[in-house]
Amino acid sequence: MHDTSASDAATRPRSLTDPRVLIPLSLLALYVIWGSTYLGIRFALESYPPFLLAGIRFLGAGVALYGFLRWRGMAAPTPLQWRNATFTGLLLLGMGNGLVCFAEERVSSGIAAVAVASMPLFAALFTGMYGQWPNRRESVGLVIGFVGVIVLNLGSSLSGSRLGAIALLVAAMCWAFGSAWSRRRDMPQGPMNTAAQMLTASVALLLFGFLSGERLPAHPTMHATLALIYLAVFGSIVAFSAYLYVLKHARPALATSYAYVNPPVAVLLGILLAGEQLGPYDLLGMAIILGGLVVITLAKQKKQVGVAAST
Predict the structure, then answer these.
(1) pLDDT for 199 beyond 90
(2) Which of 98, 110, 194, 267 is paired with 39 by a 20 to 30 Å CA distance?
(3) To 5 degrees, how large is the angle CA 168–CA 109–CA 194?
């Protein structure tokens, strides 16, 4: 007897809520939007100081998204979920994004994106804290990637600003640890997770900004303000929601694959729209880092295929 239900399911149009549709769309948003946010941060920094810039960005986006979700009837996070979202938001947005804004006062947007591309290397190490230590092939990829980080720091772009280089590496480590930690915690559901993390991180960023002596600009340029709005709407609400969705529904290697694409996108946009330039060490470091990430991803895929075959 012919099974018509299976054939009907295969030919039926996929819903927009189908992960097979949402995961590719989310990855596309991560690749393009997050690749462009590095240049958006540079433009916004023309008027806004770094930590207040990040705080305003996430406060505006967080309030708008949280208010919309509550209006649509979504339940507020539980106290435990607020606690977990606060810790994750401080790592991903507070230190991760805040330090990138701080560093971009000292280095180009393209170089910032290349340095942050080391994040999956740290993510591979942090997963070892939960019993998933890198295998031999993944370890080779880690060594290659960290050699790329060293080469990148030898270039004139980062060697001229050690503070900027340290800030970018700490940002990558915080983002990696926050991503690994949050996967095993009770987090708010769906987009409420995005809203809760942005709200809690914005408070910390604004407090730190004001306490460190930053002040809001009296007459910000239209150029900088439009960049801030772009960062809040697309970089925060759209792309960050996409990242949290992929982080929950896909393999970690796929969720962090945006790190392959963001640096070339950011470098290209920086060259075309801001006249940025990269030296030979910068290009070589980027190539080595991305090569290490490719080795890690291929090793993870092979390991997963082996596990599936054994079962």
Answers:
(1) yes
(2) 194
(3) 65
Each residue of 46-64: pLDDT tens digit? 999 999 999 999 999 999 9
Contact 277, 133 (CB under 8 A): no
Helix axes 50-71, 191-211, angle to 10 degrees: 150
C-alpha 125/C-alpha 122 separation (Å) is 5
Residue 161, SS3? coil
Which pLDDT belongs to residue 130?
A: 65
Cα 162 versus chain centre, distance: 22
Q: How far apart are CA 79 and CA 252, in angstroms?
A: 27
**What is the C-alpha to C-alpha distance for residues 299 and 306, in angstroms, rounded to an integer?**
11
Asked if 218 and 111 touch (Cβ cutoff 8 Å), the reply is no
CA-CA-CA-CA dihedral for 60, 24, 188, 120, to nearest 10: -90
Q: How far apart are CA 112 and CA 165, in angstroms?
A: 8
For the ranges 103-107, 126-130, 170-174, 219-223, which has the lowest average pLDDT?
126-130
Say which residue, 279 or 81, is predicted with more confidence.
81
pLDDT at position 121 is 75
Residue from 28, 40, 69 nearest 194 by CA: 69
194 φ, ψ to 5°?
-60, -50
Give the span between the Cα atoms of 106 and 111, in whole angstroms. 10
pLDDT of residue 309: 39
Asked whether 235 and 35 are in contact (CB, 8 A), the reply is no
- What's the CA gap between 95 and 175, in Å, rounded? 8
